[in-house]
Specification:
With 239 residues, the chain is α+β, with helices and mostly antiparallel strands. It folds into two domains: 28 residues; 158 residues, no CATH class. The protein has a five-stranded mixed beta sheet with strand order 1-2-3-4-5, sandwiched between helices. It is extended. The N and C termini lie far apart (119 Å). 24% of the residues are buried.
Amino acid sequence: MTTWEQQSKDLGERRQKWESTQNFNFIRALLESENEEEVKAAYVRQFSLPVKTGKRHDLTVNNVLFEFKYSVNFKNLEVAAKVVAQAIYYIHRLFQAGEEQEISHLIIADKDEAIIFKTLDFEDFYKSTAYDWVGYRPSSPDPKLVNHIKQSRLIESSRVYSITNEDDLSVFTNLFYRIVFHSKNNDDSSHTLKTANKASLKFVIYFVLIFVILGLASILVMQYRAELGDKDIPVETKR
């Protein structure tokens, strides 16, 4: 294949990808999905999400943990509580590693619904020693945890977004971008501010130390001169 032919082929592939992107319909992709992975793929494509699944859960983007399902009924309290409990198992692992602060929100989603939670709302659960974190798998969580989540009313007080409804999708999308991407920018700004504050604090400490050292040196010099002034100066007498 000549260089010109290769360039033509590459251009054709890029054009095909661009056209495919332009024709992508999120709602249609969700409705036509046949498994959990296709639901996740639709979200990844719709919101241009980087795929990071290294910690044995579906997806983590910036400060948000995602738990995807294929087709469940989040309006069913028992079903939703089990999905949330599964996600709490993952957050508990992060807690044990001292990394739970990295996750500010939890999003559970399937092919037509989604719910957004604040991770701190479940702090009493993922930090608790009352549940069996070892004997049960995340996909089959401790029934005690599931029951306590149901009793907490955290699910009932949260909005279930109907993603296949244009109005609900619009509201969800605005909140999604604000949580997933703006929170990251805020964290970066906060980190920059903390770094600047630390640098300023170090400068102040150094300045104070220098000032104290110079002050002590001045006091010692003054004391030395005073001691010299108090001493009798010998006078030679003529014989």
